[in-house]
Amino acid sequence: MAPRMQKALVLPTKMGLFSLQDVPVYRPGPTDVLVKIESAALNPVEWKIQTMGIYIENYPAILGTDAAGVVEETGENVKTLVKGDRILFQGFFEPAFGTFQQYSLPERLQISPKLSFDQAATLPVAISTAVLGMYNQRPESTSAYLIHPWNEAGHNAYAGKPILIVGGSSSVGQCVIQMAKLSGFSPIITTASLRNTPLLSSLGASHVLDRNLSPAALMSKLGDITGGTAISFVYDAISLPDTQLLAYTALSPGGTLVLTFPKELLAEPEKASDRKTIVEVFGSLYIPPNRDIAVAMCQKLGGWLESGVLKPNRVEVVPGGLAAIPAGLERLKSNGVSATKLIVHPQEFA
Ligand SMILES: NC(=O)c1ccc[n+]([C@@H]2O[C@H](COP(=O)([O-])OP(=O)(O)OC[C@H]3O[C@@H](n4cnc5c(N)ncnc54)[C@H](OP(=O)(O)O)[C@@H]3O)[C@@H](O)[C@H]2O)c1
């Protein structure tokens, strides 16, 4: 039986300061699963919510959307999971579903990982954002509508077609590289700090370009690599003004650019004559347009992890439990983390 109270990192007001508080543990309804969170990962969106006041209107809020843990209790109608199952899951921006706490009531879109809890917690948001932005087929979704690689027809569907992934060493970027490999894209070109070249090559990147080169130098290198072949799909995993402009410029007319942050930041207005489609992915498995593909992806995830098609991020465990999250978010904000996911252990305060 779970305890009645737990520790949670609460954001009391919009753009307020995080505070560690005692809050009640949620009681699972008939179809719910209560999870004891062993590992929770930090994401850039959390410092953005706190400093920009975006995405959440109801406060107090409990943030955090990446976690792994153990099933603690199940509702009477839950047939697929039992107490003690190890799972990873994506949280959502509502208190019962947040992961910056010791217990959460996630939607059951989880898989059972053989990874460590820390490795498993690096994946839910990153792989979802990659897959949803590339392959969601629902017309009302924000996606490039690529053929998904679940089956033979989709596997290698893009053989011989170049792809540019801006920010390949980010968590999202690492997953996009791995999905691009599954889809057969070639060459797979990415930008990152060059110290991350061995890692990104091991994930499937064929060319890693120094992200500190000037836009003109990057464009020139892209031309050399592709030999002038059109780049009709670009995924900007960073989506800052300068990366958006690079991604948009590199994209060929008629192509599709996926952004992970709003395109209002695009430094130059889009030109209709370019016929370039820009989509802003929302990497949540919880919203209706993403549900079908979420289920399909979760069915595949276990196999991908088992076979090594999908590898988790490198992990740095930040000591101090939930209380260490604000300082960890500061590190993300100041670009102090490279090709690594910061993880906390919420039970450290138990
Ligand atoms: N729309 C959504 O649903 C959604 C979901 C998840 C994330 N996001 C957004 O997507 C972005 C990435 O998130 P994340 O969690 O993947 O980030 P992350 O792992 O924290 O990103 C860190 C990495 O970003 C790279 N980087 C920073 N600036 C760069 C630049 N100008 N060019 C190329 N690489 C750069 C760094 O590369 P080096 O160390 O190699 O220099 C570093 O490895 C964030 O803006 C986040 O808010 C959106």
TrEMBL record:
UniProt xrefs under InterPro entries: ADH-like_C, ADH-like_N, ER, GroES-like_sf, NAD(P)-bd_dom_sf, Trans-enoyl_RdTase-like
Taxonomy, superkingdom: Eukaryota
Residues spanning the membrane: none
Domain Enoyl reductase (ER): 16-344
A single MF term (Gene Ontology): oxidoreductase activity, acting on NAD(P)H
SMART domains given in the database record: PKS_ER
Entry protein name: GroES-like protein
Taxonomy of the source species: Eukaryota, Fungi, Dikarya, Basidiomycota, Agaricomycotina
